[in-house]
Design brief:
Length: 492
């Protein structure tokens, strides 16, 4: 994989920037606001590239916090090469809402339905975030410098690189083992299996209950319930009307004078009005009583139909239970395997695991001379030594004296780690991009130029940050960042 170009807009201190890359590239800069080389945006270029490739999974950063202050969105564009394929990537980071991603492969949009599907498609070309960090990023950070791992972690990490070569076979054997255990002859309960015809008859009976009797009862209950609800609504209206008229009756009985003209209200005037109200209230009470009778009838009908439904459901449950028992008995014909079959599968899994460990050790034997061919310039020789558990110890010999990896200086660790990762890529017949954010600052000028010289003869592309002004410009391209008034600009 190789990065050809990168463009971004509204990213941190950059309003807009466009970069092109060659084989080896180093990023430097100067901050006119603080009169030093810090805070100019060098790491922003590395993080921006990681964001472009893999989003938050690669960059370990909140996408929205990467957008320039005061802006609602930011744009990242880039072009990478993977083998013979040219991939154009466009990622839009949004402060509010969902960020977007689109890619074109050799000019063709795969037309994925979501940013996640586009990202998964991109991962098919660039690999997982975990492997990218471990094998394409040079840093002293935990989890990135794999030679700092314990012997067991180192073996697992190296095994993880080629794990796909074994996972397919191992999964097939595990599936077989599970099948053998599930259908072991020891699990057979019944001596004789029923006929398939009985199972078919039971299935038909259950289906008939579902499609006819049970469904019919459910529809009837629903219909009765709807009618009952209508009556309840009508009863509620009548009860409210009765309550209002009763209040009117009591209020009129107590009335001594007209509220409008303040004339005394006589009993003769009240009597016909009170009689009318009393008749209306009695009629309402009668209607409510009739509705209560109807409601009671609907309750009894619904209750009876629910009982009928329960009986049909119980019948269905019994048939389903019988069907399950028959299915278990019928399945016993599949119980054809023995403990010997299970044991053979276990042995095959152990053999695959053992061969995986053997493969890693043989693989390390190939990598070892590649690494040594370069670190011999430091008068060093590295050895990968397996212990009795198959774990891998790293041993360094310098001028006849043995050292452990953690005894080396930071610069020596970075030099060896860089060569080791290049060797891993070469052995896997991979090539292309490697990133170093500040990692090379611990290298001497001589060792930094040595790495650049090594890379110049290999199919590897390097993008690094450096504060070293004495890098050999014939071996690497300088990308200079100038920052003034909190605005960063690129000068290539």
């Amino acid at each position: 994989m190789r990065i050809n170009s990168l463009y971004f807009k509204n990213i941190r201190s950059f309003e807009e920037a466009e970069l092109t890359f060659v084989k080896s590239n180093f990023i430097t800069g100067w901050n006119l606001d603080t009169e030093d080389g810090n805070g100019v945006g060098k790491s922003t270029v590395i993080i921006g590239l990681l964001l472009l490739l893999g989003g938050a999974k690669f960059a370990d950063i909140n996408l929205k916090k990467f957008v320039k202050d005061g802006e609602s969105s930011a744009l990242l564009n880039g072009v990478i090469e993977v083998g013979e394929d040219i991939i154009e990537i466009e990622r839009v980071l949004k402060v509010k809402g969902t960020s977007t991603l689109k890619i074109k492969i050799n000019g063709v949009d795969p037309e994925c339905v979501s940013p996640k599907i586009y990202q998964d498609k991109l991962f098919e070309y660039i690999g997982s975030a975990e492997n990218f960090k471990k094998f394409r990023i040079i840093d002293a950070s935990s989890g990135i410098n794999i030679l700092d791992f314990t012997s067991g972690q180192l073996r697992k990490t190296l095994m993880g690189i080629c794990q796909d070569k074994f996972d397919g076979v191992r999964k097939k054997i595990l599936d077989k083992k599970s099948l053998y255990e599930k259908f072991n002859k020891k699990a057979v309960i019944y001596k004789h299996a029923p006929s398939m015809k009985r199972l078919e008859v039971l299935g038909a009976s259950i289906q008939a209950l579902d499609t006819s009797k049970l469904n019919e009862l459910v529809k009837k209950i629903q219909s009765f319930q709807m009618d009952k609800n209508k009556l309840l609504t009508e009863k509620g209206k009548l009860t409210q009307d009765q309550h209002i008229k009763s209040q009117q009756l009591q209020k009129f009985k107590a009335m001594a004078q007209c509220p409008s003209c303040l004339q005394r209200v006589t009993d003769g005037y009240k009597k016909p009005i009170l009689q009318d109200l009393d008749i209306k209230i009695k009629n309402l009470v009668s209607e409510i009583a009739t509705l209560l009778v109807d409601l009671k009838m609907y309750d009894e009908i619904i209750q009876q139909e629910e009982k009928n439904k329960s009986k049909v459901y119980e019948r269905k449950q019994k048939l389903n239970g019988l069907k399950s028992k028959l299915q278990v008995r019928l399945s016993q014909k599949d119980y054809m395997y023995t403990d010997e079959d299970v044991e053979i599968a276990k042995q095959a899994i152990d053999m695959i695991d053992a061969f995986g460990n053997f493969y890693v050790m043989e693989w390390v034997k190939v990598i070892e001379p590649i690494v040594n061919s370069y670190i011999c310039q430091l008068n060093m020789k590295i050895s990968f030594v397996p212990d009795e558990k198959g774990n891998i110890e790293v041993s360094i010999n310098r001028n006849g004296k043995d050292y452990t990896y953690d005894m080396l200086s930071q610069g020596e660790k970075i030099f060896i780690s860089t060569i080791f990762k290049i060797a891993l890529l070469m052995e896997r017949q991979e090539s292309g991009l490697m990133l170093a954010d500040e990692a090379f600052n611990s290298l001497s000028e001589e060792n930094l130029n040595r790495i650049l010289e090594v890379i110049s003869n290999l199919p590897v592309q390097l993008l690094c940050i450096s504060h070293n002004p004495n890098i050999d410009r014939t071996l690497a391209k300088e990308i200079f960042i100038n920052k003034e008034n909190d605005i960063s600009t690129i000068k290539e």
